[in-house]
Amino acid sequence: MRIISYNVNGLRAAISKGFLDWLKTDPADVICLQETTAQRENVDHRPFHDLGYSDYWFSAQKKGYSGVAVFTKIKPANVQYGTGHKVSDDEGRILQSPKSLTLALKLQRRRKGALEVNYEREHVL
């Protein structure tokens, strides 16, 4: 199984820069995306399905912010959206398939020191 993790820094922007052409090269069975910055309903996902991928999205509550998605050719038995921690779930940080151990995770890059690392440890991991 080939798995790729990719921070797209905006999926719609990535699509306009050739993301779909890259997908056509069959780079992986599972692609975990971070920073989608889009809601699923705002992206035409038919091209992903045409290439054989099922798509699962966990978007931030705030539009145009954060978000993760998994495109997979291997249908997961179960998909878990978030962790139950409101702060990280509102930002669309974690999407996982526990049985196959596939995880799309976006950790906030913070510059304020150990206090911020402790926040991630308590609310995300």
Task: Give an overview in words.
This protein is an alpha+beta fold and 125 residues long. It has a single domain (3-123), classed as Deoxyribonuclease I, Chain A (4-Layer Sandwich). Helix content is 25%, strand content 24%. It contains five helices and seven strands; from the N terminus they run E-H-H-E-H-E-E-E-H-E-E-H. The strands form two sheets. The chain has a four-stranded mixed β-sheet, with no helix packed on it. A hairpin with a 4-residue loop joins strand 6 (94-97) and strand 7 (102-105). It is globular, with a radius of gyration of 14 Å.
Helical amount:
10-25%
Helix/strand order, N-terminal first: EHHEHEEEHEEH
Low-confidence stretches: 114-125
| CATH-assigned homologous superfamily | Endonuclease/exonuclease/phosphatase
- Biggest sheet record: 4 strands, mixed
What's the end-to-end separation, in Å?
A: 25 Å
What Rg, in angstroms, do the CA atoms define? 14 Å
Oligomer: single chain
| Secondary-structure arrangement, i.e. CATH architecture | 4-Layer Sandwich
CATH class: Alpha Beta
Number of strands: 7
What would the principal axes of the Cα set say about the shape? globular
Alpha plus pi helix count: 5
Number of domains: 1
Residues in β-strands, percent? 15-25%
Class by SSE composition: alpha+beta
Mean pLDDT: 80
Strand arrangement within the widest β-sheet reads 1-2-4-3
CATH topology: Deoxyribonuclease I, Chain A
